[in-house]
Amino acid sequence: MATRTDAPTRREQILKEAARLFAERGFHGVGVDEIGAAVGISGPGLYRHFAGKDAMLAELLVGISESLLTGAKRRLAEAVGVAPGAVLDSLIEGHIDFALDDRPLITLHDRELDRLRDADRKLVRQLQRQYVELWVAVVRRLYPDLTEPAARSAVHSVFGLLNSTPHLTRPGSLPGRAGTAELLHRMARGAFAAAGA
Question: pTM of this prediction?
Answer without folding.
Answer: 0.87
